[in-house]
Design goal:
Blueprint (H helix, E strand, L loop, with lengths): L29 H12 L7 E4 L6 H12 L8 E5 L9 E5 L3 H25 L1 H31 L2 E6 L2 E8 L2 E2 L2 H5 L3 H59 L3 H16 L13 H5 L10 E4 L9 E4 L4 H5 L1 E2 L2 E3 L2 E3 L5 E2 L2 H5 L3 E5 H5 L4 H11 L1 E2 L4 H4 L13 E2 L3 E6 L1 H10 L1 H6 L2 E4 L3 E3 L2 H17 L7 H15 L4 E3 L2 H5 L1
Parallel strand pairs: 1-16, 1-17, 8-13, 13-16
Antiparallel strand pairs: 2-3, 2-7, 4-5, 5-6, 9-12, 10-11, 14-15, 18-19
Helix pairs in contact: 3-6, 4-6, 6-7
């Protein structure tokens, strides 16, 4: 009896372990469960959780089971979107929305952009716009013609012809109403030639003064055309933007963004008109730069989904904090806010993030990035090459996003003590420890909990069910694994095997 304590099959009042699969009483890790409850209940800074224990003790399963039970009762975190910063394009704005609203806002903005693509070009092709624009252009041309005509009449009164040539404007003396031939001019006396040349010089100076005004008149015409474009564009699109603002503009930041978007559309209406005539082929085939009016839906949640529970299978630096992608365009790499991709911390924001400590520590700079986020309580997306100063070009600097996340590290005991010894920040950030026992006492209650656990394992792995005798044999095997007839092994992995 000291070396081997049998388990009577009569302890199990079932014909098949399938009858236990619906039960919830499993192997208890009471000390670890209390620690997890404490870490879950405290929302203050630093009360993250380190779960330590032997491999195969069911740490991942029990932690996930515990968090999945608490997450639905917690509030659903907000949605986050990145949008274009019209003042500083390399610093995109982050907009916060209620759960589920961010996706609707993104869809509404996509529809707004489609409406703008059809409304603005139609506006510029309309008869009203064309008439008013032609009137401005005709007014400038008329002003130029009148100035040149006045100079032509003045020259004629002085016996000088004012002519338009392929090379520009020219003056020549008149004789009997016709341009004087060169031979006739040379036959004039020296005084007569000097008098004609003097009059031409004065007229030439007046011509220069007149022509010098042409750019100013053209500039004024362009200003009036720009003003016309803005006036008519605003009148045509303001109701489209106001419709979006009416639905989503209760938040002041969203309302300010939509107002800036409207102003930018009005100021840059030519973006919707396509490339000008005679543009190079690459401009004719390229899409207009309308990405600035899109929305990058970074994270979206259901309206009643509770808090997220995310497991970091590959906790690299980029996977944790997100990344900024690039696209090749005309032989160069470009990026904008639409290429910002979320990280695991974005997805777990407002909920729980489970990380295997050993995997985290072997990833370069991942542990430092996680600490920085937990200390600052904000997520600043900074690419690794930029952080290491490997590039000197201007890159995106997205607006940081506030973070409220509970991190659960799972690792061996030696990792916990090693990190506590070598990193002074570790104890400040992970104040709660859940230590999983390798063994539990062999009490009747624990034997029944072990039976329920085994039933769940058989059910989840698609194995054959056990009868009472088979379950008794498993109990005896777990006692052998514990190397104590009065205890049961709590390590799930060898039990499953």
């Amino acid at each position: 009896m000291q070396l081997y304590t049998p388990c009577p099959p009569e302890l199990f009042a079932f014909a098949s372990s399938r009858e236990l699969a619906a039960g919830t009483e499993r192997i208890e890790q009471q000390r670890a469960a209390r620690a997890m409850e404490l870490a879950t209940a405290i929302g203050a800074d630093g009360f993250n959780l380190f779960v330590m224990g032997a491999p195969g003790s069911g740490r991942h399963t029990l932690v996930r089971h515990h968090l999945d039970g608490h997450a639905p009762d917690r509030p659903t975190p907000p949605d986050w979107c990145y949008v274009h910063n019209f003042e500083l394009p390399h610093k995109p704005w982050a907009l916060r929305f209620e759960p589920g609203v961010g996706r609707r806002f993104s869809a509404a903005m996509a529809q707004l952009l489609e409406d703008l693509k059809s409304t603005v070009p139609a506006l510029f092709e309309g008869e009203d716009y064309q008439t008013r624009r032609h009137a401005i252009e005709a007014g400038v041309k008329q002003r130029q013609d009148e100035a040149l005509s006045a100079l032509r009449d003045k020259a004629r009164e002085q016996g000088i012809a004012f002519m338009t040539t392929p090379g520009g404007f020219a003056f020549a003396p008149l004789q009997d109403g016709e341009v004087m031939p060169p031979d006739a001019f040379h036959k004039l006396t020296g005084q007569q030639q000097e008098e004609i040349e003097s009059r031409v010089a004065v007229l030439q100076k007046e011509l220069q003064e007149t022509v010098r005004q042409f750019p100013n008149w053209m500039k004024e015409a362009r200003r009036r055309i720009k003003q016309l474009d803005q006036e008519m564009t605003r009148a045509a699109v303001v109701h489209l933007v106001e419709a979006v603002a009416h639905e989503f503009g209760a938040d002041q930041e969203v309302a300010d963004y939509l107002q800036r978007l409207l102003d930018d559309v009005v100021d840059n209406a030519e973006l919707f008109r396509g490339p000008p005539e005679g543009a190079p082929p690459f401009m004719a085939t390229a899409e207009p730069p309308l990405e600035r009016y899109q929305v990058n839906l970074l994270v979206s949640h259901g309206e009643n989904g509770g808090a997220p529970v995310i497991f970091a299978d590959h906790p690299s630096y980029a996977n944790l904090i997100g990344r900024i992608e690039h696209q090749a365009q005309f032989g160069a790499l470009r990026t904008d806010f639409t290429l910002i991709k979320p990280g695991l911390l974005h997805e777990a924001n407002g909920g729980f993030l489970i990380i295997d400590a050993a995997r985290l520590l072997v990833e370069p700079f991942a542990w430092d990035a996680l600490k920085r986020v937990l200390r600052s309580r904000e997520l600043k997306l900074e690419p690794l090459d930029q952080r290491l100063s490997l590039i000197s070009t201007v890159s995106l600097e997205p607006e940081p996003i506030p973070v409220q996340v509970k991190v659960v590290l799972i690792g061996d005991r030696y990792l916990y003590y090693l990190m506590s010894q070598l990193d002074p920040d570790f104890a400040e950030l992970f104040k709660v420890v859940a230590d999983f026992d390798d063994d539990i006492q062999r009490t009747p209650d624990n034997v029944q909990r072990l039976a329920t656990t085994v039933a769940h394992l058989a059910e989840s792995d698609g194995l054959l069910p056990l009868d009472g005798g088979g379950m008794a044999r498993v109990v005896e095997h777990t006692a052998r694994l514990a190397v104590d007839t009065q205890k049961l092994s709590a390590r799930i992995s060898p039990i499953r095997d």
